[in-house]
Amino acid sequence: MPLQPFGKSLALTLGVELELQLVNTVDYNLTSSSNDLLELLSRKPFPGTVTPEMTQSMIEIATGIHAEHAPLLAQLREMRKTLITACDRLNIDLAGGGTHPFQRWSEQRVFNKPRYQEISQLYGYLAKQFTVFGQHVHIGCASGDDALFLLHSLSRYVPHFIALSASSPFFQGVDTMFDSARLNSVFAFPLSGRAPFTLSWDDFAHGYFTKMEATGVVKSMKDFYWDIRPKPEYGTIELRVCDTPLTVERAAALACYLQAICRRLLERVEHAPEEDDYLVYTFNRFQACRFGLDGTMVDPRTRESRTIREDILATLRAVEAHGAVLQCLPALEEIERCAARDGNHASHLRRIFDETRNVQSMVQESTRALRVGPRR
Amino acid sequence: MALGYSPPMFGTAAASALETLTPLVGWPLMLLAAWLAGEAVYKHWQVPRVCAYGVVGLVLGGAGLSQGFAPREALGFMANVALSLTLFELGYRVNPRWFRHNPWVLAAGIAQSLLTFGAVFWVAGQFGVKLDHRLVLAALCVATSPAAVMRVTHELHSAGQVTERLFHLCALNCLIAVLLLKLVVGYWHLETSGDLGKAAFNSIYVIGLSLVVGGVFGIVAPILNKLATSSQATTVTFAITVLLLSGVAQALSLSPLLAALAFGAVARERRILLSHAQRNFGALGDVLAVFLFVFVGSLLSWSGLLPNLLLGAAVLIARSASHTVVNLGLARISGTTFRKGALTGLALMPMSAFALLLLEESRSYGFDLARESLPVIVGLLVLLEVLGPLATQRSLMLAHEAHPEEGR
Fold first, then answer.
1. Touching check for B274 and chain A: CB below 8 Å?
2. β-pair partners for A60
3. Residue range A14-372, CATH number
4. pLDDT in tens, A245-284
5. Which terminal residue of chain B has fewer beta carbons within 10 Å of its beta carbon, N or C?
């Protein structure tokens, strides 16, 4: 089946998807309870969308389409409230975070849904190691060409989003030394990484995708696990590198930071993207995963290197005017606090671990942070 | 006499050979047989291992293999410790805040306990059981065996609403059963001795102080545990403190079972997030579970069984019907489906170990009625040795809460 035409959406609108952890209230391990939770939630209208995910200890929530920060955040908070009320009634708890710090993937129950069963069959242990939790941000694009332009222009900013959202320092009970261990699980999939370089939707759809489909390797865009991928049915591009942060406030801020960057990119004041931008891509991405905001990133054009933190703070200054137009200045302030002062949630979780020397306390703090914000 | 030492059913020659062997070899052999039987039934038919332990205890105990090894008190103490470990685990598993967020779960627990008490009391009346015995029987039937519940859920790695409710309702049932039995004991003391003081003393003192002692352990043990260097060490700390608690409770004529439950609950509340002991105390828990179920099985004797089998079956139906009706009725309003509500009700079936040890406990503190009541309940307990854990296991499987990888 050929790729469908690129759908219509309003440029720079946005939507957020969050994958959340369901944990028990005893030892904060993951609990296979999404069936129970979804059944209870189905009784009343949900302020957004909630769907099952790969394993039963995970659910995904999605906002509607928004143009501004305030209504986006309001909807995320409303969904959080509904979810937490339902979880309390079922004696389960809810947490953000890109990985569960000590779950053993071999104990997860795969959700009974044909596609997931199929993935589980195909990927074996990778499918269960994929019990990781990400935030996806959709940005509306006026056309397929715009989508590919943004997709490739954003490659330079991917490390920002990895470092800012990183909240998965521990995996399978050990400190991975990474700020985002989650992405290491994603990279294990054969079709992960970056999209091929083309700026023309026609070339992408009728060239690359048609050839890939003919090989039988992929059936739809869903089979690609790229860091940023076009979503023709929505008319959006989808940024998929973010860990689910510990708070919905951080999630909304990340989405609006992306929105502001996209607005600036669409003015086409920077050089047009080119294949050589990707020379440093995997290096920068590794730095962001491993060291977070302290990581080094190399600018593919100037070949200068500086810390990701510095690059974010510089970018914030560059997009401030756009943020004002988009009415997302509070989001940019949250990003600045994160980059300049508080650090990302991975460093917050590590601090908790250093205090308590206990992996469970990190999950306990995650559940608390989702409800009322991180402990100061 | 159900609790008495029934004579060996073998021929005299075999019996004399056994006499020389059994004192030392009898118990270990029974445990080994039970363990192997448990593995076999689980592997071939996916039947809970504890069913096999109980049956082996019942059969070999009935054959007289369990006699003469150690004094009954010693075995009873060990069984109490085994059950106390389970109750500690259950107490740790229970989240009191859930009752605040979802009072319907608490309501279900209270309603089903009272309904069970009433239903069993009535059914036993239909069989012409004496009033005193009916009261004891009805109070005991309120309990759900934490040992069977914990072993089966552990075996299945189950998670979900049926599992969650099973833990919380099991704890409530045990607590209410103890309360009701103490009331019955108090009533009995009042009737027989007319001594209101002794009656009140027996009920309030025992319950209150058991909870307090358990609570104190719950505060002290986590402090001791700070010395533990690994999760294995944590397991040992808690196992030994449970052992100590059982001793203290028995020495003070308290209820070790109630104390262990309180210990677990307080340890959970007081935890400054200590690393969790291994689930069900690891291999130690496995060994003690084999012992507990074999011991309980061996306590039940064949004599007096047949006449009471019909009564047992009737009580079993009344009890399970009460559980199911209440949990079905409150399913939607408490946040789950009718299907899961009904399955929760069925899963609450096991009761042998807790009820029997509770009865033993009362007996050792001078409640003569306990001895007399046993024949009335033995039919039920024998039936439940197998049916109880099986019902729990099948309910969890039907609720899709069992871990699919287990047993592959």
1. yes
2. A19, A51
3. 3.30.590.20
4. 999 999 999 999 999 999 999 999 888 999 999 999 999 9
5. C
